[in-house]
Amino acid sequence: AVIYLLHHDRDGAFGLAINRPISRHSLADLLAALGQDAKGVAGDARIFAGGPMEQEIGFVLHTADYRDPRTLAVDSRFSVTSDSEILRAIGTGKGPKKSLIAFGYAGWGPGQLEDEMSHNEWYATPADATLLFDEDRDAVWQSAYDKRTMRL
Hints:
The chain is of the alpha+beta class and 152 residues long. It has 5 helices and 8 strands, in the order E-E-E-H-E-E-E-E-H-E-H-H-H. Strand 1 (3-9) and strand 2 (12-17) form a beta hairpin. Helix 1 (27-33) packs antiparallel against helix 2 (85-91). It is globular and about 50 Å long. The two termini are 16 Å apart.
């Protein structure tokens, strides 16, 4: 798996798998499944398995050009929003330039990720928009591996 870390500190780590597409759905269908009005919403999106934890919770990883009150900035380039309004924004052309929709997440307790990395179970790679949002998801793992560093 290729995981984009959204948060990492002494209490643990949290991220989304970005290389596991599972389906494609219309944005209107996604909103309707969430009990939201889908009027005026167009387009579709690939849905990713974000990780094994709480798979009923959806996240939208996106470029930082979109922000609403529930958006959390990861850094100056990328943000994450876990609210259905971003689906409406994307489907009406008012959303972020690039986005990835995932259900579930990957998480580690205090020191767990560092321990796994010390055993070469994971590698760190600098994030970039191509790695996160490029359409060729089959190449993501190899691209991330080729860019890897040993530091977290």
